[in-house]
Design brief:
DUF2798; about 90% helix; about 170 residues; Integral membrane protein; membrane
């Protein structure tokens, strides 16, 4: 878990950056098929998707997911196994982000005006969840946690070295 603003920014940038990149590619491929235009279509949709995802993550989904996790789900046993806390929050984050980003995706594609908005949303939501959950738990989450762990280890070593210098 990030312990300060710098760590939160790096962790969110990695998490959102990778998730949005892969999910944009997946959704564009699902909507348009795989063609030579796919990379350009991904790059075209990526910046706005990333911006929206970061805002939703930091201001809405993250605080709600962490609040629900620590208030209703995480117990004393889980507090002893920090990996369980990470998995719990990751699952809640994926559920929240898929819920909101699926709506964002169909809005951007102009699908809110057709007569089957609920069916389109439900289809989009389930297909996004099928990819986003394993992507988060098996690939992106471990990468982001590894980078965060290395940052925290380096920060601890630096603080330790500074303490030793002050004592000398």
């Amino acid at each position: 878990m990030p312990r300060n603003l710098k760590e939160e920014i790096v962790f969110t940038a990695i998490m959102a950056g990778l998730m949005v990149l892969v999910m944009t590619g997946y959704n564009v491929a699902m909507a348009q098929g795989i063609s030579a235009d796919l990379p350009l279509a991904i790059l075209k949709g990526y910046p706005l998707g990333l911006f929206v995802a970061i805002i939703l993550d930091l201001l809405i989904v993250g605080p709600i997911a962490k609040g629900l996790a620590f208030k209703y789900i995480i117990n004393e046993y889980m507090k002893k196994k920090t990996v369980l806390i990470g998995i719990t929050i990751s699952v809640l984050m994926v559920l929240g982000m898929v819920t909101l980003m699926s709506f964002f995706g169909i809005a951007v594609e102009g699908e809110l005006t057709n007569g089957h908005v609920l069916a389109t949303y439900g289809h989009t939501w389930i297909f996004n969840l099928i990819v986003a959950l394993p992507l988060q738990l098996l690939i992106v989450g471990p990468i982001a946690r590894e980078v965060l762990g290395r940052m925290q280890k380096a920060a601890s070593k630096k603080a330790e070295a500074e303490t030793i210098e002050e004592e000398v």
